[in-house]
């Protein structure tokens, strides 16, 4: 079992405010497991009953719309926590979390997290700041969906994928979303997304190699996204 006090991941989340005795308690109560690509960590409507700490890998948070489309709300990377809002509000998960690649995840039960929450003011403040940050991102995303064209949103999303998750050795985006997932992230039909990617490719903004996407002209893509 890995020691929570030695885990580099905790430095990037609310867990960095926990004291040594709290970290020892967390290490004794947590469960660590591997999630395969495509498997869910939890599903919309499920009772989460704790928080998940992402040690390795990336997952998508998405919501199923009335017409059956999967709308991606956020991508979650190592060092982030999942389930904080559901745990505090004591409500079922509002979103589904599905692995985009193999993941290493730790689960900390609700009672133990609430113990830290009630006994460590800095921890509870950091959790609330994280939730507020998520709400701000949600507001920004809503404004972007309302005010930007689909073309601008696609440019913005491709830049976000490169800036946040980096590239492979061949220059392609490390996190490769399917065309359907990419369409769900920018709020358009899959056919429209495919057409726009082809247009970006012909204009020299990106390079398509099978399912892989590489950004060829970052400055032009930035201008388009603004």
Question: What does this protein structure show overall?
Answer:
There is one protein chain. The protein has 226 residues and is α+β, with helices and mostly antiparallel strands. Helix content is 43%, strand content 22%. The chain is built from 8 helices and 10 strands. It has helices at residues 20-29, 84-89, 110-119, 121-147, 150-165, 179-186, 190-202, 218-225; strands spanning 31-35, 40-42, 50-56, 59-64, 70-76, 81-82, 96-99, 103-109, 206-209, 212-215. The strands form 3 sheets. Strands 1-8-3-6 form a 4-stranded antiparallel beta sheet. A 4-stranded antiparallel beta sheet has the order 2-7-4-5. A two-stranded antiparallel ribbon has the order 9-10. Strand 9 (206-209) and strand 10 (212-215) form a beta hairpin. The protein is elongated, with a radius of gyration of 19 Å. The mean pLDDT is 87.
């Amino acid at each position: 079992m890995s020691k929570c006090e030695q885990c580099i991941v905790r430095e990037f989340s609310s867990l960095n405010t926990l004291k040594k005795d709290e970290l020892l308690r967390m290490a004794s109560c947590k469960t660590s497991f591997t999630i395969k690509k495509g498997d869910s960590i939890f599903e919309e409507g499920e009772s989460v009953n704790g928080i998940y700490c992402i040690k390795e890998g990336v997952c998508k948070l998405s919501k199923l719309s009335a017409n059956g489309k999967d709308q991606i709300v956020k991508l979650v990377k190592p060092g982030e926590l999942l389930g904080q809002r559901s745990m505090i509000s004591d409500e079922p998960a509002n979103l589904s979390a599905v692995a985009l690649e193999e993941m290493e995840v730790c689960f900390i039960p609700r009672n133990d997290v609430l113990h830290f929450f009630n006994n460590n003011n800095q921890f509870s403040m950091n959790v609330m700041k994280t939730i507020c940050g998520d709400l701000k991102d949600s507001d920004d995303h809503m404004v972007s969906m309302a005010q930007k064209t689909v073309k601008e949103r696609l440019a913005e999303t491709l830049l976000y994928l490169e800036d946040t998750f980096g590239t492979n050795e061949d220059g392609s985006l490390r996190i490769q979303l399917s065309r359907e997932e990419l369409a769900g992230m920018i709020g358009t039909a899959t056919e429209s997304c495919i057409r726009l990617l082809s247009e970006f490719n012909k204009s020299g903004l990106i390079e398509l190699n099978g399912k892989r996407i590489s950004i060829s002209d970052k400055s032009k893509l930035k201008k388009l996204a603004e």
